[in-house]
Amino acid sequence: MLAGGAGAVAVTTAAPGARAAVDHDVFQHGIASGDPLPRRVVLWTRVTPTAAATPGSGRGPRVTVTWEVATDRRFRDVVRRGRVRTGPARDHTVKVDATRLRPDTAYFYRFTCRGETSPVGRTRTAPARNATPAGLRFGVVSCANLQAGWFSAYRHLASRDDLDAVIHLGDYLYEYAPGEYGHGQQNADIRPHVPAREMVTLADYRQRHAQYKSDPDLRALHARHPFIVTWDDHEITNDAWRDGAENHQADEGTYAARRAAAHRAYDEWMPVRMSGTVATGDGTRLFRTLRFGALAELSMLDLRTHRDQQASTPAPSPVPSPAGGADGTITGRAQMDWLKRRLRRGGPQWKLVGNPVMIAPVTFAQLPHDLVDPVNDVTGLLPRDGAPYNVDQWDGYTADRRELFEHIRDQGLRDVVFLTGDIHSGWACDLPYDAATYPLGDSAGVELVCTSVTSNNLKDITGTPPRTSSLAVEAVIQTNNRHVKYLNFDDHGYSVLDVTPERVQMDWYVISDRTDPRARSSWTASWATRSGTNTVQAASAPVGA
Amino acid sequence: MCTPGRSDAFERGRDEIRTGRRTLLAAGAAGIAISSLPRAAAAASAGTRKRAYVLVLDGCRPDEITPELMPRTSALRDGGLHHPRATSLPVMETIPNHVMMMTGVRPDCSGVPANSILDRSTGEIRDMDRPEDIRVPTVIERLNRHGLTTGTVLSKEYLYGVFGGRATHRWEPAPIVPVSGHAPDAFTMEAALAMVRRNDPHLLFVNLGDIDRMGHSDLTGPLGVRAARQAALAATDVQVGRFVDLLKSSGRWRTSMVVVLADHSMDWSLPHQLIHLTPALEADPLLAGNVTIADNGGADLLYWTGDPALLDAAVARMVALSSAVPGVLSAHDPRATPSLRTGPLGGDVIVYAKAGWRFSDPDQWSNPIPGNHGHPVTMPIPFFVAGGHRRVPRGVTSSRRAATIDVAPTVADFFGVGAPRGGYDGRSRLPRR
Q: Measured between beta carbons, which residues in chain B are less than 8 angstroms from residue A531?
């Protein structure tokens, strides 16, 4: 059935009259859709044709899976139908591109295999290329560490009927073993990871994806809305860069092999077109653009595959020795050139950028030393000795940021909005060309940062109650960074992004307790950027409330 | 660049009055001089209660129209049809974009690609400030032919010149500030109000020049302070408010459409961020002595004056050498860049500055002013359609593109006078009936 009201989840339901040929759940990892275009959308599922065909096992027969797309939830008006083969070579995942659909239209989809029918999913195509939609609305999420808590944020987003898609900005899953990077100061595991080790091999990655897709809240959200995803580092391992990662050691094999395994599993298990197709093994290019009529274009970045090694940092995270430094690249040449082509005057009005790590400059001068380490545990932001940048984010790659901002300025672009995750906190920022003199001078655009679904934030690291020690940190950061207009270091949750020709608004929702599988959700803040202003202002109320 | 040249625009205007082609009347105690075409009174009785007003806030940036700084203008924007994606068009200068507003076509059709061009008939650089520079009929003449009356209240000397005697009623601008070549907004608005009260033209085209002029000369601009500019914005907003007040108090508002836009935006450069192309071009054996530059502030127009048979090679050299000069954003061969549509008068190569830079050619002291436009950073403009007429949408923002060339088709659509042969390059911004 479909996710209904708050708290509802998608559960397996055989279609009326369907005869089950197996005695276990064939569709135990749910169904999903993604990357909506005007006339096509990606449909995904994973089948378990035999009990032994568990994720990552490499066992089980090749089977045929039928997929259907209809305009009604009872499938009386099936508009597209097809058959696809899958098997152990691709971990029994199924990914198809349903084509020849109508723009800006809601559809229902389902799969059938071995006499069993999957849950029914709902998806939506993008508006036609030259359409002028009155509005678009997205869920925005990042950083969902299963060991750190329950995915209530996903459940509450799944209960909304007013979203066109969900934008996932990365850290969809985490690599750690049980006991590593769990909940709070003690790293307690609210739910231990499977397999019970750091994921390194292809089988590990497949099993971890399967575990996450077994979560009822995530399954409900996938069933209810199409996803538009990018990865950050934890889809492979912590602080990944082009040829390595902080959390990759020599005894774990070559980094190239590990990354290839991670990318392979991601391609199999996520409803995304990599290198422009739904086929696996034909390329792993993740940066891509999705257009929503004349109103908006969303460019999703990959800031882990092509970046130089992070510069050394005074922050306590064990980053390797210096490499690229501030002149190194975070995008890679090809992605930067592509992004500059996407950010152009002739394109749609709002130029949204799905940006896995923060691009707003953040500098510090007066933060109490007692708070430096806890803040760094969360964000890696604070240089102990006053160096003014965070080297795992765009602050560590200032040449790339300068090139991008100069492009925006030189071309007279307006309405560029960076949508960001990664740092487990909520931010709304202008993007000054010169932070030292701002608000004198202009802004390149704005950045809206969603908080984490569950991953630890400042209060979790310090072990202090919400809105106590964090308030001082937030005040100091904002005092030193006048372009940071909103900052919340304490809460977990999700965001809703509303796009109209007048403005783009982000609403931040927080969940009551990530250790509570029934956690409540409440609105906490809204910030908007009016078209043409390149700045953010507080908004008085969330949309659709 | 908007620096005034040596114009004979006013001499031409006086000749028109002296020879009886226009009739001069002084309006009100302020002695506002408005000249009119013969038989204007008869024409005024024709037609409709509809009125269209086009107010150009010369050089205004879209982000400058805020409720705090420009409350009256921002209220107009928010109450009407707002086009946040609107742009100026190449070359992003005053004269070509005002001409595009009134002709609805790009410079390769209108004949006016820039403020400053090389006049190959004389071999001299000059402003495009002559009525005959516009080679196609404007919407002003189109309305006139349909028995409707028109008016121009243009604060700048070269705009007065290029639109000449086309309008039924024309303000003879005064006083003109000697250095800037424009009339202050307070005087310009007095003239606009007087023309509405006395002549009540169906279309009134107004240019308010203070924002641009204060922007050009604002030495605090590069520092982001923009003190003089901000004062001008606030003052011009008051003038916009006066105009709206008159429309409402006189009952015209409910039959009116008020188009508010800018012709281009504004960018500021630090004194040391000068682009000087001349040395690079003169050092080249092929180009030396054979290139003339028309400096348009944020854009340089390069003209090949050597052997026509060597044009292709010369253009390639000009593009390559210019592109390598610090501060240059890009150099274009208009023949290979169809989107420019600047036409043959717009130069053989167009070179754009990066944001925060300006050209100064042929000499390093040719362009001393900090505020400039003409380059892509100055493309975004405010553009909105207000007014009480039923065809004007209320409180709508559009994600569609809009540009200065859309003004003429919008006005033509409003009055139902159709399009010229060959059509407009722009589109009416009004919803279809």
A: 82, 84, 397
Q: Closest residue of A to B357, CA-based?
A: A410
Which of B66, B225, B355 is the closest to A409 by Cβ?
B355
pLDDT at A114 over 50: yes
**CB burial readout B198-217, b (16+ within 10 A) else e:** bbbbbbbbbbbbbbbbbbbb
- Are residues B85 and A349, on separate chains, in Cβ contact within 8 Å? yes
Shared domain check, A138 and A175: yes
What pLDDT, on a 0 to 100 scale, did the predictor assign at position A384? 38
Rounded Cα–Cα distance for residues B131 and B112 (Å): 11
| Confidence label for B18 from pLDDT (cuts 50, 70 and 90) | confident
Residues B93 and B175 in one domain: yes
- Its domain, for residue A96, covers 14-120
Burial of A348-377, coded b for 16+ CB within 10 Å and e otherwise, reads bbbbbbbbbbbbbbbbbeebeeebbebbbb
**Chain B residue set in contact with A, beta carbons under 8 Å:** 62-63, 66, 82, 84-85, 87, 223-225, 265, 329, 354-356, 375-380, 382, 397-401
CATH classification of the domain holding A362: 3.60.21.70
Give the global pTM: 0.92
- Quick one: tokens of B303? 């003209």
What is the arithmetic mean of pLDDT over A482-501? 95
Banded pLDDT at B432 (limits 50, 70, 90): confident
Let me know whether A111 and A160 are in one domain: no
Instruction: Single out the residue in A71, A96, A120 at which a domain terminates.
Output: A120
Same domain, B243 and B298: no
Helices (H), A32-177: 152-158
The whole domain housing B315 covers 274-369
Written as six digits, the tokens of A307 are 């970046």
Whether residues B398 and A501 touch (CB distance < 8 A) is answered with yes
Interface test with B, best of A129, A345, A410 (most B CBs within 10 A): A410
Q: pLDDT for B206-253, tens place per residue? A: 999 999 998 888 787 777 778 888 999 999 999 999 999 999 999 999
Contact list in B for residue A533 (CB cut-off 8 A) is: 63, 66
The model's pLDDT over A122-152, given as tens digits with 9 standing for 90+, comes to 999 999 999 999 999 999 999 999 999 999 9
Residue whose tokens read 């020849």: A100
Query: Which of B83, B85, B340, B398 best tests the A interface by mutation, with the highest count of A CBs <10 A?
Result: B85
